[in-house]
Amino acid sequence: MGRKILYAIAAPVIAAVIALAIGAIVLIASGKNPAEVYSEMVDYLMSWDSLVATLNRTGWFYVAGVAVAIGFKMNLFNIGVDGQYRLAAVCAAAAGAAMNGWSIPGVLQITLIIIVAMAVGGAYAAIPGALKVKRGVNEVVATIMLNSIATGITALMLARHWRDPESELVRQTRQIDERAWLPTIDIQGSELQAWVFFAAAIGVIFYILVYRTRFGFDLRVSGMNPAAARSSGVNPNAMVMKTIVLSGIVAGLIGMGPLLNEFHQYADQFPITLGFTGISVALLGRNSPVGIAFGALVFAGIERASQILNTLEPPVPQSIGRILQGVILIVAVIVYEVVRRYAEAATVREAAAKAEARYAHKEAEVVA
Predict the structure, then answer these.
(1) Angle at CA 271, nearest 5°, toward 270 and 274?
(2) How many CA atoms lie within 13 A of 328 on its CB side?
(3) What secondary structure does DSSP assign to 18-73, as a single string?
(4) 3-state DSSP call for residue 185?
(5) Dihedrals φ, ψ of 163, to 5°?
(6) By three-state DSSP, how is residue 89 classified?
(7) Is the CB of residue 64 less than 8 Å from the CB of residue 229?
(8) What's the rounded Cα separation, in Å, for the pair 24 and 41?
(9) Of 106, 186, 284, 302, which shows the fewest CB atoms inside 10 Å?
């Protein structure tokens, strides 16, 4: 057990050290002092305001990572998470705005908005699922095309049908009634978003569903060994549909953090590419609930710390943060594989040594 923990810790630590080293090389090539830049980033990140902001963004990234990881567990690459969450967010924002003035409790409004987002995300994800099951269309190709279609649909609905008539310069939906906003918690003047706790609950549900239910067992077996799953009675087409729709349902929740806790309407400046960030977070976290949380925290922390860079004298490009995120991801994938192979080799050597010792002991007994 101790060796397994060591291997699990070694990979991300090695990846972080290599990423910082490569980032330092880039900074030196840019004429900057890496030690000073990293020190400024850490100091900025350690303030209460930055820590709370990092946790808020971690919640967004975590849900995105879970949405992608559900597909990865069955070797389904749902790259359409990005389009699914944006389409779900604009529909949920429009539904929330349509309830303005209704005399129903805010909790019920929030529930209905979330249900709309989940339904839209799941329904849109069902399209590539059906194409894969019925026509054998690769889900990567289908979801990439559907991302572009989602962008067009979102722009059309925002410009023609759901646009706030009082907004002339910015394309946006009407603001959701304040009763339907998620609360925030004041921490020394910084607002911790309640969505962080929703994200944690989604992680718990993800763990229970994937690791403690028959459906989760079938999902994982279908991903690891489709032939064995089929021979045990699992319908592969049904599992593809269930998995990708479930991934889409969770994808629909990605935009609920920004919508219900920060923006309260869908607009041109609504966060985009959260779905693609979720792919990186899921890969970095090895598709495990705890690992995804670590990956989300790392990406959110780097993103927040990078905001101080353009205020330094002389200014440092914020793209350094993107470089660090990308390098950590690439190096982590490589290091995880190296560590995995080393661990397997060590296990084989240990098993061989034990077998040899038992054989020698039995041979000694026979001689005696």
Answers:
(1) 150
(2) 26
(3) HHHHHHHHHHHHTT--HHHHHHHHHHHHTSHHHHHHHHHHHHHHHHHHHHHHHHHT
(4) strand
(5) -70, 140
(6) helix
(7) no
(8) 13
(9) 186
Structure-token pair, residue 89: 């967010």
State the Rg of the chain over Cα.
24
What is the pTM (predicted TM-score) of this model? 0.90
- The class of domain 31-316 in CATH terms is mainly alpha
Nearest residue to 85 (alpha-carbon basis) of 6, 1, 140, 151 = 151
Instruction: Print pLDDT tens along the chain (368 aa).
Output: 556 666 666 777 787 888 889 889 988 888 888 999 999 999 999 999 999 999 999 999 999 999 999 999 988 999 999 999 999 999 999 999 999 988 899 999 999 999 999 999 999 999 999 999 999 999 999 999 999 999 999 999 988 889 998 887 888 999 999 999 999 999 888 999 999 999 999 999 999 999 999 999 999 888 888 888 888 888 888 999 999 999 999 999 999 999 999 999 999 889 988 999 999 999 888 899 999 999 999 999 999 999 998 888 778 888 888 888 888 888 887 887 777 787 777 777 777 777 777 777 676 666 65
CA–CA distances in Å: residue 320 to residues 222, 273, 331: 40, 18, 16
Write down the domain spans for the chain: 31-316
Q: How far apart are CA 222 and CA 292, in angstroms?
A: 21
What backbone torsions phi and psi does residue 212 show, to the nearest 5 degrees?
-130, 15
Element (H, E) at 184: strand 184-187
Residues in Cβ contact with 129 at an 8 Å cutoff, skipping those fewer than 6 apart: 139, 240, 241, 244, 245
Number of neighbouring beta carbons within 10 Å of residue 34:
17
Give the amino acid at 269: Q
d(CA 227, CA 168): 57
- Residue 196 in contact with residue 56, Cβ under 8 Å? yes
Q: How far apart are CA 169 and CA 184, in angstroms?
A: 29
C-alpha distances (whole Å) from 147 to each of 87, 107, 140, 186, 312 are: 9, 31, 11, 37, 37
Compute the residue count for the chain: 368
Q: What would the two tokens of residue 343 be?
A: 């661990």
* Alpha-carbon span 343 to 334, nearest angstrom: 14
**Which residues face 190 on adjacent strands?**
187
Residues linked to residue 185 through DSSP beta bridges, in sequence order: 192
Nearest Cα to 212, choosing from 200, 222, 204? Answer: 204
